[in-house]
Amino acid sequence: MADLISLKEIKRYYDVGGEIVRALDGIDLIIEPNEYISIMGPSGSGKSTLMNMIGCLDTPTKGVYEFEGELVHEMDDNQLASIRNRKIGFVFQTFNLLPKATALRNVEVPLIYANISKSERIEKAEKALNAVGLHDRMHHKPNELSGGQRQRVAIARALVNDPSILLADEPTGNLDSKSGVEIMKILDSLHDDGNTIILVTHEEYIADHADRTINLFDGKIKEDIKTNKRIRVSS
Amino acid sequence: MAKFSHVNSTIREGFRMAIEAIRQNKLRSILTLLGISIGVFSVIGVMTAIRTLESSVNSQLDILGTNTFTINKSPAIQIHGPGGNRKIRQRKNITYAHYEEIKRKAKLPLRVSVLDGTGERNIRYKDKTLKKSAELRGADEWALRSINAYLADGRNFTPDDIRFARNVTILGPDILDILFPFEDPLGKAIKIKGIDYTVIGVTERKGQAFGQSQDYFVLIPISLYIQRFSNRWTSLGIVFEAESADMYEKTMDEAIGLMRVIRKVPVGEENDFSILSNEELMETFAGFTGGIKIFAGSVSVIALLVAGIGIMNIMLVSVTERIKEIGIRKAIGATRRDILTQFLMEAIFLSQFGGVVGVILGIAGGNVVAIVLNVPAVVPMDWAFYGMAVCSLIGIGFGIYPAWRAANLDPIESLRFE
Q1: Are A97 and B13 within 8 A, CB to CB?
Q2: ipTM, 2 decimals?
Q3: Which chain A residues are Cβ-neighbours of B336 within 8 angstroms?
Q4: For a disulfide at B112, which of A12, A30, A231, B103, Cβ 3.0-4.6 Å?
Q5: With an 8 Å Cβ cutoff, are B332 and A97 in contact?
C-alpha cells in the first residue's frame, strides 16, 4: 500500500534567544492509510512539533516530508494552506472554535476556503454535524454547548472536507471523563470507517485506543510499537 | 471562474466578519466611523453648498438683461488689495455728460441707457413708511430692461418724463406690499424725502438673488435723481445692450474704446472704469467658490487623514484581539490572501460605512443653504461618488498594514495565543 505520510530525517530547530532548541531531531516515520496512531511522550519531547509538522502548520528545518507523494517541505505558504484545507483535519485540546459563530457556521468555514458553493457547504456541514450527533444543536454558538459537544463540532469541522488524515491533539484533555469516552468512541468509529487518525496524548488509556503508539523523547522516536490492544469491532 | 467565485466567497466572508466585528464593538466602531463621517461630511457639505449657490446663481443670471453690460466707475465685487482700492477710488466719476456723449457716438449698441442707485429710507405713503432703506434708482425709459424687470401694471417712463424731470415713480412689488397693502397705487402720490411722486407703474416680482430681494426698489427719472440725490461721489452706470450675442464682444469693444476717448485715458494705461457683465459676475463668483473649494478640500484631506489613522489603529487592535481566530482560520486552510482580504474588507467596510453616513449628512447639511436661498435642493452625485471612492482608498490605504500583519501571523504561534 502506498504511504500516506513519509517523514525522512526530519529536523526542526528553534532559535530561542541564541540557544538552539532541537524540537525534532531526526524523525523517520511512515504512516499508511487507515492507521490509528497515538503519539506519546513527556512535555518538551516534541509531540506538538511533530503534530504541527504532520499537519503542515510547520515546515522542517531539514528533512523530507512527503504527503501522498507531494513534497511538503518544498511547499510555499499557499500550498501548505491548501493541503491543510483539503487533506488534514485538526481537532485541538481547546476546541478552537470561532466563538461568535454557530456550530453550523464553524463547520462551514473550511468549505469557504475550499471554494465550495453556499448550498453545498450547508448540506455538507449539516451532514458532518449529523454524523457526530449534533443535528439538534447546529444553530447554537460554542458558549451554548457543553465541552463534549464543542469537541464534536470540532470533529465535524475536521471531517467536513473529507481529509486524508485526522490529527487530534489531546482531544479529551479539556473534557470530563464521560465526554472523553464519547469523543474517543467517535474517533474509534471514524477509524473503523476507514479514516486515518493520529492522536497526541499523554494519557495511557487514550493512547490504548490506537493500533500503534509512538513514544517521543528529546525530539527523537524512542519507541514505535504496534499494540492492537483494542478489541476491534469487525466491520 | 473558480478563482472568481473564490474571491467572491472570501469577500462575502470578509463582509460578514466586518459586520460581526462592528456589532461586537459598537462604541469603538461608531467612534471610528465618526472620524470618517466628519471628514466626508465636511467635503460633501461644502461642495453641496457651493453647488447650491452655483445653481442659484445660474438660475438667476438674469440680474442683468441678456446681451447687456454696464460700465461703472468701480467693479461690482472688489477683490483687490488696499492699493487697488485706492486706485479705484481715485477714478473720475462717470457723469451724465459722459453718458450723453457715448450715447451719441456709439454706433453698435441697440440702446444705451443710464442708471444709478442709492439707499433711501424716507419714503412714505400717508402713514405708511419703510422700515429699512430701499434701493432708490435714477432711471430712464430703458431701466426696466436693464434690470430685467417687467411691468405688472401701469406704464413705463417716457422720454418726456426723463427730459422734463417729471415727479413720477415706478415701484417694486416689495415696496408696494408695504405702502399699498390694500390700495391701487396707480395715480397716488408717495413722498420721497418730503416731495410728492406720482406712481405710474409697478413691476412683476423677481424674487431673490444671492439671498437678497430684487423687488425692494423705487425708480424715479434719472434727471430728477441727479438734481435731488446726487453728491460729489455720485457716479452713474451706463448700460449697453448689444443687438445680438454675436455682436456682444464688438459692442463691448466699441464702448470701451469710446469711453477711453471720452475720459481721456492715455494709450497704454488701464481703463479707469469697470465693465460689469453676467459673464464677469459668474467669473468673479467662480473665483470665489474656487477658493472655498480648495480650502474645504485641504481641510477635508487633513480630516480624512486623521480618520484613516483612526481606522488603522482600530484595525491593529482588531488584529491583536483576533490572533487566535486567525490561527484557527489558518489551521483549517485559510491562505494569507484569505486573511488579508478579510481584514482589508473590514477596513473598507468601516470606512465605506462612515463615508455613506458622511455623504448623507453632507448633502443634507449642504442643502440647508438651498433652503436658506430658497432654491431647489442639489444632490451632487459626482461628489458623493468621489467621497465614496476616497473612503475606499482610505480603507485600503490604512487597512493594508494591519491586514498584512494579520495575514503574516504564524499559525502555530497564533493558535497558542490566549
Answers
A1: no
A2: 0.92
A3: 77-78, 81
A4: B103
A5: no
